[in-house]
């Protein structure tokens, strides 16, 4: 029984949200926009372009496309500078164990992320080889909650979407998984991710029997 296990990146495998926040905060400060940790929650699972628009909306700032393009480049260069020293210690608790279990059980393993920087992050943290398939921000035209990213992952694994399981930390990602008719597993707070089929705080709460249940059902 081979299922497709699709992992989101930021918030599921690694906590890159803290680096996105630092980089966006620099842009916001330069534009005199107040951008808080709370505001950063709005950017989770959201594309880079949409993230900038949300920040500009927060500050009620209008900008030309030229300026926006410039800030998008600046933000990404700054973000990448935080990734230079990234290593396996940044993999969130329980993730390695889950990936290894899925490998041992010969399951399909995919990444389904909005990030255009997914590959270097998987390389630096040493888990690239676990993934049979990578679908990221470079491969899709429609952002979550559109199911494109997850449907593409299942298709590349040659597994029916009904036999796919998605691990996600964002509301938009859970909605995308549900629209794809996949099993949705929320990683985070119950109150936020209540649309998910299952919810856990993190991967340390996901044990072998739960994975075996997902494989056999
Ligand atoms: P990049 P995920 C998402 O990753 C992040 O949650 C979101 O905050 C970020 O804006 C987006 O990737 C794009 O990232 O600027 O690296 O292309 O959660 O879908 O893995
Ligand atoms: Mg995420």
Automatic annotation (TrEMBL):
<dbReference type="Pfam" id="PF00702">
    <property type="entry name" value="Hydrolase"/>
</dbReference>
<dbReference type="InterPro" id="IPR051600">
    <property type="entry name" value="Beta-PGM-like"/>
</dbReference>
<keyword id="KW-0597">Phosphoprotein</keyword>
<comment type="similarity">
    <text>Belongs to the HAD-like hydrolase superfamily. CbbY/CbbZ/Gph/YieH family.</text>
</comment>
<dbReference type="InterPro" id="IPR023214">
    <property type="entry name" value="HAD_sf"/>
</dbReference>
<keyword id="KW-0460">Magnesium</keyword>
<dbReference type="InterPro" id="IPR010972">
    <property type="entry name" value="Beta-PGM"/>
</dbReference>
<keyword id="KW-0119">Carbohydrate metabolism</keyword>
<dbReference type="InterPro" id="IPR036412">
    <property type="entry name" value="HAD-like_sf"/>
</dbReference>
<keyword id="KW-0413">Isomerase</keyword>
<dbReference type="InterPro" id="IPR023198">
    <property type="entry name" value="PGP-like_dom2"/>
</dbReference>
<protein>
    <recommendedName>
        <fullName>Beta-phosphoglucomutase</fullName>
        <ecNumber>5.4.2.6</ecNumber>
    </recommendedName>
</protein>
<dbReference type="GO" id="GO:0008801">
    <property type="term" value="F:beta-phosphoglucomutase activity"/>
</dbReference>
<keyword id="KW-0479">Metal-binding</keyword>
<dbReference type="InterPro" id="IPR006439">
    <property type="entry name" value="HAD-SF_hydro_IA"/>
</dbReference>
<dbReference type="InterPro" id="IPR010976">
    <property type="entry name" value="B-phosphoglucomutase_hydrolase"/>
</dbReference>
């Amino acid at each position: 029984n081979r299922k497709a296990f699709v992992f989101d990146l930021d918030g599921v495998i690694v906590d890159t949200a803290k680096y996105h926040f630092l980089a966006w905060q620099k842009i916001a400060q330069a534009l005199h926009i107040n951008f808080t940790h709370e505001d950063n929650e709005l950017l989770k699972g959201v594309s880079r372009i949409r993230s900038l628009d949300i920040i500009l909306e927060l500050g009620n700032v209008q900008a030309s496309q030229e300026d926006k393009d410039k800030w998008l480049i600046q933000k990404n260069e700054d973000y990448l500078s935080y990734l230079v020293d990234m290593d396996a210690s940044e993999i969130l608790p329980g993730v390695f164990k889950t990936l290894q279990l899925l490998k041992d059980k010969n399951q399909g393993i995919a990444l389904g992320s909005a990030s255009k920087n997914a590959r270097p992050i998987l390389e630096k943290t040493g888990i690239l080889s676990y993934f049979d398939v990578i679908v990221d921000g470079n491969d899709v035209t429609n952002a979550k909650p559109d199911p494109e990213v997850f449907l593409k992952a299942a298709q590349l694994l040659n597994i029916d979407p009904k036999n796919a399981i998605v691990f996600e930390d964002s509301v938009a990602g859970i909605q995308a998984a549900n629209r794809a008719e996949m099993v949705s597993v929320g990683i985070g707070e119950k109150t936020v991710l209540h649309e998910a089929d299952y919810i856990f705080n993190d991967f340390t709460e996901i044990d072998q029997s739960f994975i075996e249940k997902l494989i056999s059902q």
